[in-house]
UniProtKB/TrEMBL annotation:
A Pfam family of this chain: ABC_membrane
Protein name: ABC transmembrane type-1 domain-containing protein
One Gene Ontology MF term: ABC-type transporter activity
Domain of life: Eukaryota
Residues annotated as domain ABC transmembrane type-1: 1-150
Keywords of the record: ATP-binding, Membrane, Nucleotide-binding, Transmembrane, Transmembrane helix, Transport
Gene Ontology cellular component list: plasma membrane
InterPro entries hit by this protein: ABC1_TM_dom, ABC1_TM_sf, ABC_transporter_C-like
Transmembrane spans: 7-24, 30-52, 123-141, 153-174
């Protein structure tokens, strides 16, 4: 978390700087792309909170499964003596399936975050320049390259690193709760 914690203030600061630079170059059309970027960042923040919830549930299932496994290992002689192997194996399998279900949901959430990262800049550029043209302006190469560069910077910090920072904070909070 200490490596990514500073992204929580750098991400919004970078977005503000990009808004100012794009405003100076393409005017009000930059707000359309930045509004979409802010929507993506809010969705990423929501997914970070959802990841915290999934991480906490996964940790609870993992703790339950490990506690059960420790009990099984401790009482293996009794389990063997009464031939309870099958019922305990089914219990542990059920617990593991619940744990894997939460891990799978977390993986899907990570996949959605990567999809946002891969597609966001293209969608934001499309919206920005569509708005620019619809307002009656002509696009120049200078404007396109500047917008691509600035959106790439804000995409990296705002859409990739910002959710990772939120995810790291969420994992830290979940770990601290488990330790307590």
């Amino acid at each position: 978390v200490t490596i990514r914690l500073h992204i929580l203030w750098i991400g919004p600061l970078t977005a503000i700087t990009v808004i100012i630079l794009l405003w100076m170059e393409i005017g009000i059309s930059s707000l359309a792309g930045m509004a979409l970027l802010i929507i993506f960042m809010l969705l990423q923040s929501f997914s970070g909170k959802l990841f915290l919830s999934l991480r906490s549930k996964t940790a609870a299932f993992t703790d339950t499964r490990l506690r059960t496994m420790n009990e099984v290992i401790t009482g293996i002689r009794t389990i063997k003596m009464y031939a309870w192997e099958k019922s305990f194996a089914e219990l542990i399998t059920r617990l593991r399936r619940k744990e894997i279900s939460k891990i799978l949901r977390s993986s899907y959430l990570d996949g959605v975050n990567l999809i946002f990262f891969d597609t966001s800049s293209k969608v934001i550029l499309f919206v920005t320049f569509t708005t620019y043209v619809l307002l009656g302006n002509l696009i120049t190469v200078k404007q396109v390259f500047l917008a691509i560069t600035l959106y790439q910077v804000v995409k990296f910090t705002g859409i990739l690193l910002f959710p990772l920072a939120i995810e790291s904070v969420a994992e830290t909070v979940a770990s601290v709760r488990r330790i307590k």
